[in-house]
Amino acid sequence: MNEIEQAFTGRWRVSQMDMWEQKLVDLVVPGFIRFDGDESEMRFIAVRAWLDVRYLFKDGLPSVDFSWQGLDERDDRCGRGTVTIVEPGKLIGHFYFHMGDASSFEAIRENR
C-alpha cells in the first residue's frame, strides 16, 4: 500500500452534501465513503455504490478519482467522483450520477 492509499484507507462519515439535507443523506444508514482496496464503497440516501479508485496528487494534495456502480433503491446506477484530503481527518469531494444529479460533499474520518 502506497502513501496516498494509506492516507485514504478507512471509513469517512459524510457530514454534508450540498444537494441533500443530512437527514436524507442518512436515510437508510449514516452516509459514508470507505476506501479499502477492492471493497471500497459509498452509501447515502438509498444509494449503495462500489468504487473503482485511482490514487493521485492534485495540486500537491492526496486525491482519489473514482468511478462507481451500484443501486439507487432497486435501480442500477453508475457515475464518477473525486475526493481530496484538505486537512488531516477531513476530505472534500464531488459525486456525479451518470446523466443525472451531482453534489459536492464533505466527510470526516471515523475512528479506525
Could you give a short description of this structure?
The protein is mostly beta strands. It has one domain (3-107): Lipocalin (Beta Barrel), CATH 2.40.128. It contains 2 helices and 8 strands.
- The shape is globular
CATH class: Mainly Beta
The overall pLDDT average reads: 94
- Taking the alpha carbons of the first and last residues, their distance comes to 16 Å
CATH topology: Lipocalin
Structural class: mainly beta
The ordered string of helix (H) and strand (E) elements is HEHEEEEEEE
* Strand elements, count: 8
- The CATH level-2 architecture is identified as Beta Barrel
- Unreliable segments (pLDDT under 50, ≥5 consecutive)? none
Rg (C-alpha, Å): 13 Å
* Main pleated-sheet profile: 8 strands, antiparallel, barrel
Overview of this structure, please?
- The structure is a single chain.
- The protein has helices at 3-8, 22-25, and strands spanning 10-17, 32-35, 41-44, 47-58, 61-72, 75-87, 90-97, 102-109.
- It has 112 residues and is mainly beta.
- An eight-stranded antiparallel barrel has the order 1-2-3-4-5-6-7-8.
- The longest helix has 6 residues, at 3-8.
- It is globular.
- The model has no long low-confidence stretch (mean pLDDT 94).
